[in-house]
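Can't paste images in this forum, so I'm doing it all in text. The chain is below; anyone willing to post the predicted structure tokens underneath?
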Amino acid sequence: MIRRKLAALLAGAMILTSLPMVSFAASDNRVDRIPTIKKDTDLTPIPNLVIDLKDGDDLAANDKFTLSFDNAEWRIDDDDLDPTKEYVVGDYAYKIITKKLLEFRIVSVKDKYSIPMFVKVKDAGEAKVTIDSMGSNISAGTYVIANVGDGATKTTITDTKNFSNTLELETIVIEELKPGTIEDVDTKVKEIKLTAPAGFEWVKGAKLTAAGGFNSITFDEEKDVSYGTYGKDKIDEEVLVIKYSAERGTGNGKILITGLKLKSTKDADYGDVKVTVSGDDITEETIKVGKYTEYGITVKADGDPRELFSGVWELDASGSTVKEDDAHKLTKLVIEEEVVDSWASERKTNIEFPEWFKVAKVKVDDASNIKNNFKGKTNEDDTERITISKDKNVITLSDIEVDRGTKKDKKGKVVLLIWGSIEAGAEGDLVAKVSGQALPESYEVTLAKVLPTVKGEVKPVEVQLGYREVKVNDITITETKAGALKKSKELVIGVEKMGFNKNFKPDVEVTSGDLVLGEAKVKNGEITIEVKRESKTASTIVIKGLSVDIDRTLPEGSYALQISGSAAIENDKKDEKDPGNDYKFDVDVYEVDDFVKIVTPAPHKGEASGKSVKVAFTVGSADYTVEGETVTADVAPYIKDGRTMLPVKYVAYALGIDPSNIKWDQATKTVTILGDRVVQVKIGSKDLVVNGAVLTMDTAAEVKDGRTFLPISWVASALNVPYSWDDATKTVTFN
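Text version of the structure:
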């Protein structure tokens, strides 16, 4: 059996395997406007953080998340700051933990929430807000809420590009931090100066457009734009000067500069290209406008990485490959030229995935400027240009050709849809490595966030060899997301190299969420539970009342809980003739370590010490003492009908009987103790057999919590050990 580990060892403590909260795309988050503002002022106009939940990823009432701020603080006086006070605002409520940290609680369940960023910005740069989902269906992330300036204006650029010869700059925006900081702009001619790095020259074409608090802008491209000259006597190819005037309206004035081009010369250095912007009443700033490179390729995911379960598998109508649905689909992969001739597309481009992902199908979603009708092709109908490796984790694109056009200036672009199968238990980022002869370098891109269907949580139990019906601790199984366990399929729970005892019926409870389960059954040492209805809220299952049988041949060590079944794992290899086996894995169980630990008791504990010792048991306590040292059993003595009932097994252990000399016969329900004398007791019988002699007790032996119990006097008589009773402390001591 091959399995997948799900939990790490935490020695001597609870083993927790709940999923780390990583950023999965359960909601689309955005800021509806990003104002430019002077530092140390209230953010205005106030932008809104918009949280838009995706279908099937609803929130629940009282779900919580936090917002933390960078370079901004919530607008509240120090004297009014009270982290215990909750403010209810329509569909949500919030507490101000600190000025930089707010905790939100959902009041009404909606598809979309809009939260005003009521903050004061601090220093120059970007002000940001970060969402911590706190386990809710809100995607974590960090978002810019303002550009903060230190001076009269703030200069930004809408985007940057890679280029190898001429760069067409994106729009440069110069914005006043408050109205009127560019003085007398409506009565005097003003000047903007743009200085490029050495080795680059400006190309004609610059244009100005008014925006924001400027109604219009006046300039003459022929008269008012100077390329390569500055001052009367100075010629400088790297300097561009624009003269203008503007009609002022209401609000912060904005100047948009478009049509800018930079041309590289033989003296240009590769790397980031930065332009310094200055001028009359314009705060001098240096901004990155592009990157000068010999080659330029963009390899990226078209959107946020998709959230996928590992272990999922469903065939399409043909019965031979994976179904083309969202459960198996990665985020689109984009390979795009930014510089002409950067992608030698007719050569091989390899897309390599980890061994725990197998590619089932590839489809070309877009093929801009690619010859011979490449768009819409798949690995099944274009076997020359799209191939998948034998082990199913490498896609190769070959002999595709970019149509450069008559001017030889067109750039190639390919967008791929990829479906596949993820090995059960895999979790984290699914990263594709894109490389090969066709590319100037290799690239890595995350196309999915992967999580297993369930996580397990157990507390270890220490046991000795050779016993049946060994009581074990409760098992907690939690879905990592709503709908993880599939309807009409089975969840199977087992133990590594041992089995659950069929005489103990599991007590199964869904303690949170709305998952509906059928009756739990024990068969061939495994617990089987049918999923009657999938959850709409991620659910937690707790299984109690379990006992395992431990084979005497097992070595000492730790044994794992095993989670399997078609409800949790669908892509494990079962039938060698299965046509889908090429896309399946040998992993057929998840494992949670340290469920059962087989140990040899240390002599100082009194267990198997080979000698009689002083032992004390107290009614109602699982702790007992051996020569003054505390030992813990899995059951406690109790009083019934005025008699103190003791667990025979632990009394025998403590008094020096080797565990291997305590036998249990399931067929006859009889315990046999092999010590100085041979003692036998049968459950439900008043007969106590000592060295073959039958003693008739005044009460029958009984089983409670999986252990055989007898009254004090009969335990002492059977083991030939004197005892004393302290009524005040309800403690019996064997001497």
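The helical segments are 648-654, 712-719. The two ends are 49 Å apart (CA to CA).
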